[in-house]
């Protein structure tokens, strides 16, 4: 295996620092000696995503509008968090309850993934929650309008294959989580 070298950071500055979007411009030196003076990095919070399964073997999904691509998507409950202020597990539990009204006593971490490490800084922490129960109503942010949908576990693969479920983090959590349960 060939030894690879890291890129050398020469200079870095935040060129957009808004509460909803942060972009950093890095000047870097490549291992081959070439320089790039405008490598842009999207600085994003980590994400906690939970695969919640009810005692009736149904998965709790949220369906919501995503403005960037102007469409509605079926996803697993998830949300951003600052890992310096909150654990991934507590963020996952919080997002599950806020977005769906469901709770669970214990969750299991199944993976930590990177969506797009070439340009984004964040990690996505995937959790499995079994035997979730509905205890209340949603407690949504001002930007959220979410429909809660229950889908039997045995119907999920078909919905991935036909494109009804097509968000990368959700698909990864479903494949990893359901595989974990088969063991």
From TrEMBL:
Its cofactor is Mg(2+). It comes from the Bacteria. Residues 43-173 form the Nudix hydrolase domain. Gene3D superfamilies: Nucleoside Triphosphate Pyrophosphohydrolase. GO terms for biological process: nucleoside phosphate metabolic process; ribose phosphate metabolic process. One of its GO terms (molecular function) is hydrolase activity. Keywords: Hydrolase. SUPFAM superfamilies: Nudix. PANTHER family: NUDIX HYDROLASE DOMAIN-CONTAINING PROTEIN, UDP/ADP-SUGAR PYROPHOSPHATASE. This is NUDIX hydrolase. It comes from Brunnivagina elsteri CCALA 953.
């Amino acid at each position: 295996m060939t030894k690879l070298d890291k890129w050398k950071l020469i200079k870095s500055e935040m060129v957009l620092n808004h509460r909803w979007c942060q972009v950093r411009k890095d000047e870097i030196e490549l291992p081959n000696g070439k320089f790039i003076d405008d490598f842009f990095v999207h600085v994003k919070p980590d994400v906690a995503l939970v695969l919640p399964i009810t005692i009736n073997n149904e998965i709790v999904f949220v369906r919501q509008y995503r403005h960037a691509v102007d469409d509605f998507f079926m996803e697993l409950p998830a949300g951003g968090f600052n890992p310096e202020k909150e654990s991934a597990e507590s963020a996952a539990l919080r997002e599950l309850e806020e977005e769906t009204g469901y709770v669970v006593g214990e969750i299991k971490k199944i993976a930590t993934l990177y969506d797009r490490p070439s340009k984004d800084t964040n990690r996505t922490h995937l959790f499995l929650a079994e035997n979730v129960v509905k205890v209340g109503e949603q407690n949504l942010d001002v930007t959220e309008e979410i429909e809660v949908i229950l889908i039997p576990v045995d119907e999920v693969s078909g919905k991935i294959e036909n494109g009804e479920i097509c968000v990368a983090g959700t698909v990864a959590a479903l494949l990893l989580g359901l595989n974990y349960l088969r063991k």
